[in-house]
Amino acid sequence: PVPGTVNSPFALVAHIHGMAQFWGGAFAAGEDLPPRDRDAEFEATGTVDEAHHLTAELRDRLPGWATVAVTDGIRNRSAKGTSRKDAAFVTPEWVLDHMLREMSQHLGHLEVCRDILLAGRQ
Fold it and tell me: How far apart are CA 43 and CA 66, in angstroms?
């Protein structure tokens, strides 16, 4: 954990992974993935290597999910993993924008964590 933060850097990576896997994989691409447990994402713990694995998996899978979204539309609006009441009505473009916005926001959080950790080494 990073002093002064609510979530550990690993929990943020787990959340990004869970968010993208739900919106891109299960919801947009219609993949049969385990139901998302958003609360568990924020309690997740793991190693740097495990965090790298999660981000590498997304890097490999996101292009395919995005292609499905823009060419086929939303394949599974009944996927479980969001509390959004309007999920039945969102567009594929909204899904991709939402994923980009969430990833960008949490990348900023991770950068703050990094800066705090590096400042503690000096």
Answer: 28
